[in-house]
Every structure is written in structure tokens, then in C-alpha cells.
Amino acid sequence: MAYVISDKCNACGTCFDTCPSEAIIKDEKQFKIDAEKCIDCAACEAACPEKAISAA
After folding, report:
1. Model's pTM, two decimal places?
2. Cα end-to-end distance, the chain, whole Å
3. pLDDT tens sequence across 1-54
4. CA-based max dimension of the chain
5. SS (H, E, C) the chain
6. In terms of Cα–Cα distance, which of 55, 54, 48 is closest to 11?
7. 36 lies in which domain range?
């Protein structure tokens, strides 16, 4: 089960810097998680200051 980033994302980049599998990519306005690369470690969810990341 991959994680997803909601519209609460403010594109701070904390999740991007935290992801060990490089599954987070920058979209036009915010970050997205590539489900194919996500290893379900939850590091991004714990790091997000906006609580914008959750399990899908």
C-alpha cells in the first residue's frame, strides 16, 4: 500500500528529503508519491509538518 499526499501539501520538500526510495516527485504545485517506488516505510508521513501524507 503506497502513501499519498493530499492537497494540504505546501511543497516544503521535507518528504522529498526524507524518502529513502526516491519515490517522491515534484509536481507543478506540490509533491506526489510514485506508488511503484514507494516501499511503505512511512518516513514521509512522519516527517510532514502539514500532516498531508497518509496511507492510501
Report:
1. 0.88
2. 6
3. 789 999 999 999 999 999 999 999 998 889 999 999 999 999 999 999 999 999
4. 25
5. CCEEECCCCCCCCHHHHHCCCCCEEECCCCEEECCCCCCCCCHHHHHCCCCCEEEC
6. 48
7. 3-55
Which amino acid is residue 56, in one-letter code? A
Domains of the chain: total? 1
Backbone angles phi, psi at 17, to 5 degrees: -70, -25
Q: How many CB atoms lie within 10 A of CB 45?
A: 18
Burial class (CB in 10 A: 0-12, 13-18, 19+), 52: buried
Task: List the CATH number of the domain containing 7.
Answer: 3.30.70.20
